[in-house]
């Protein structure tokens, strides 16, 4: 239940659908298995699996939704080997060269013939929607997975005025300054892991784990111009995470105190425990997001919005 990553988005205007409208929209596009000739399918499932009945889980004004993707797995090596064999057969039989256009056609035919026999895998992506506060947090560090969810949500609801959450100061500049001065803004504590990146086009990358970031070695790298592109942080003794230069929160870990609180509220009922976990997580994120954006110079709001 607890998110492990965060990709953050901001509504650019009042959310254009109600809770009831969202439920209806998601119910019309349920998740399903791949057909024999489909490479993948996208649909909505229940966020708590068998422990919930609705495709929108609601708690204290927050909504939790879950995208389920099923895709057929065709290893690239299998396709390449099959195509090479087919091309070799045609060239030997007809005494001619097989060029790109024909190769592409042969590849498409080969993929379609292999799909029915391919294994499938499923992937669930969760998103927390805060309609009153105007943000969506997606539990993924992959922009592609997030875009799959947002594209289907836009398709189902008809409108999704959304943009990535932006800040006024580049995260890399802020994190570099924090490590240089060994001081982070109020509420944040610098951890012992970071990634240092050379700003030149072909610059190298140094990854540090379990290091004193105030040490002379780290400071020397900063002095010669390297920037902090990832940094481990602790926030208010509630969360540990790694922040990167694209404002993606990775390796998010909610501290035991919050998890124990959810366990106490849920008692022995799994559904109640999941609901309590979601509520506590959503409220914690609603505190983290403004605190983090303030630490990065404040939220950047495009003109005209």
TrEMBL record:
Keyword Ligase among record annotations: no
An individual GO BP term: regulation of DNA recombination
Keywords (A to Z) from UniProt: Cytoplasm, DNA recombination
Organism domain of life: Bacteria
Subcellular localization: Cytoplasm, Nucleoid
A Pfam family the protein falls into: RdgC
Example of a GO MF term: double-stranded DNA binding
One Gene Ontology term, aspect cellular component: cytoplasm
KW RNA-binding (keyword) present: no
Family classification: Belongs to the RdgC family.
Function comment: May be involved in recombination.
Protein known as: Recombination-associated protein RdgC
Species name: Halopseudomonas laoshanensis
Gene this protein is translated from: rdgC
């Amino acid at each position: 239940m607890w998110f492990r990553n965060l990709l953050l988005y901001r509504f650019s205007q009042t959310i254009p659908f109600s809770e009831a409208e969202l439920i209806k929209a998601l119910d019309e596009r349920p998740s399903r298995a791949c057909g024999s000739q489909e490479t993948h399918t996208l649909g909505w499932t229940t966020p708590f699996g068998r422990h919930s009945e609705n495709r929108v889980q609601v708690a204290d004004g927050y909504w939790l939704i879950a995208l389920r993707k099923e895709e057929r797995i065709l290893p690239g090596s299998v396709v390449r080997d099959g195509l090479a064999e087919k091309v070799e057969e045609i060239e030997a039989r007809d005494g001619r060269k097989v060029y790109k256009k024909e190769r592409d056609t042969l590849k498409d035919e080969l993929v379609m013939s292999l799909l029915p026999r391919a294994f499938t895998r499923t992937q669930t992506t969760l998103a927390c929607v805060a309609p009153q506060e105007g943000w969506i947090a997606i539990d993924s560090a992959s922009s592609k997975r997030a875009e799959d969810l947002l594209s289907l949500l836009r398709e189902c609801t008809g409108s999704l005025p959304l943009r990535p959450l932006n800040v006024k100061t580049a995260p890399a500049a802020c994190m570099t300054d924090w490590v240089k001065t060994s001081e982070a803004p109020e509420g944040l504590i610098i951890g012992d892991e970071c990634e240092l990146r050379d700003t030149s086009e072909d610059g190298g990358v140094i990854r540090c784990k379990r290091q004193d970031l105030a040490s002379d070695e780290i400071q020397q790298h900063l002095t010669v111009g390297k920037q902090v592109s990832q940094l481990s942080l602790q926030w208010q003794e509630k969360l540990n995470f790694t922040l990167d230069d694209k404002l993606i929160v990775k390796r998010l870990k909610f501290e035991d105190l919050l998890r124990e609180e959810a366990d106490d509220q849920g008692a022995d009922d799994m559904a109640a425990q999941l609901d309590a976990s979601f509520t506590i997580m959503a409220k914690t994120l609603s505190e983290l997001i403004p605190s983090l954006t303030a630490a990065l110079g404040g939220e950047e709001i495009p003109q005209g919005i």
